[in-house]
Design a protein that fits this description.
338 residues; mainly beta; Jelly Rolls; 2 domains; seven-stranded antiparallel sheet; six-stranded antiparallel sheet; 24 strands; globular
Length: 338
């Protein structure tokens, strides 16, 4: 059976800090207007989610279009292998190695850290997690917290945890739509209130909280976090590597290139076209505008796409194209070329 662009059912997560901003994409969110939806898992293949991240249950994205409808993405990956994933290295259990989300922060997220590879090796219940945030929207004055102020010692951080002054020791970074921040494992961080981001990460939700803004109903993980935190600011800037290419109707910004994945932003003018020709997997997140995705012989097959949709382009597809019906912004997530 020929593979084709895959649309997936979102998996919504209620969070104390969440909101309803995803409704702007035309989403029908669960619950009523008071139900706080903090996360939409767009691409997921986790046999179990971590209790430290508020989970515990499995999370499998289901396909919602074409001949593979209702099948789990992980099942399709196991059946078709590299025809879907290309050179992307799948997990030891054959699972899809990336987790792609939207995060809607109505309130500040907890200040937290994720395990490094070294910590995960010594603690089988934990999984490495490195992530990147692309800012889709941000209220005026919104900030993220990214890394520990230079010169902070572990003892000083422990004292701040005891005294409830942890934010004073974190690097506060103003953000606006279009910014992108890479957060390697070990970076102490938090997403601030009033921000909607697209998040790309390794397939883990192991989270160690050190501070929760006065909330008392969620567990903190002080010792685990202290064993993982890299003291000082992160080793990366806001854009990695942050280069721009192309001109005119289609402009690319190369935002993140790490060992786990790469992220590129494409800006398309109305009535322009963008071709994707590769033997690699691509995940497209439409963050602005609408258009048509075409593929197949002579680009004979077509699928309408609009803001808020996420599409998996299997490696075997080889070629596809997006025709912009309005000005569009796309994120393309691919295997790392490093």
């Amino acid at each position: 059976m020929p593979l084709y662009p895959l649309l997936l059912e979102p998996i919504y997560k209620e969070k104390v800090w969440g909101g309803r901003s995803l409704e702007r994409f035309g989403r029908r969110l669960p619950g009523d207007s008071e139900t706080a939806i903090g996360e939409s898992w767009e691409v997921a293949d986790l046999a179990a989610t971590s209790p430290s991240g508020g989970g515990g249950a499995a999370a499998y994205s289901k396909i919602r279009n074409g001949p593979l409808i209702k099948r789990a993405l992980g099942e399709v990956v196991k059946e078709f292998g590299s025809l879907v994933t290309g050179s992307l290295e799948i997990g030891p259990d054959g699972s899809f190695p990336l987790l792609v989300k939207y995060l809607d922060a109505r309130e500040n997220l907890s200040i937290q850290v994720h395990p490094s590879g070294d910590y995960a090796k010594d603690h089988p219940e934990a999984n490495l997690k490195s992530e990147a945030w692309y800012v889709v929207d941000a209220e005026p004055g919104a900030v993220i917290y990214k890394g520990v102020v230079e010169g902070t010692t572990p003892d000083a951080l422990r004292l701040a945890i005891e005294q409830g002054t942890v934010p004073e020791l974190l690097v506060s970074v103003p953000v606006q739509a279009g910014d992108c921040h890479y957060l390697p494992s070990g970076t102490c961080h938090a997403l601030g209130a009033g921000i909607l981001v697209a998040e790309v990460q390794t397939a883990s939700d192991t989270t160690f909280r050190v501070y929760d803004w006065g909330r008392t109903d969620r567990e903190l993980h002080i010792e685990e976090a202290m064993a993982c935190i890299d003291m000082g600011p992160p080793r990366v800037g806001p854009f990695e590597p942050g280069t721009r290419s192309g001109e005119g109707d289609a402009v690319a910004r190369h935002l993140v290139e790490c060992e786990h994945f790469a992220i590129h932003e494409w800006s398309l003018l109305r009535e322009s076209d963008l071709s994707f020709e590769s033997d690699e997997l691509s995940i497209l997140m439409v963050v602005k505008g609408e258009g048509a995705l075409s593929w197949g012989t002579g680009q004979s097959n077509s699928l309408a796409v609009s803001a808020g949709e996420t599409v998996v382009l299997p490696a075997a597809l080889s070629a596809a194209a997006v025709g912009a019906q309005t000005d569009m912004t796309l994120l393309e997530i691919t295997p790392s070329v490093g």
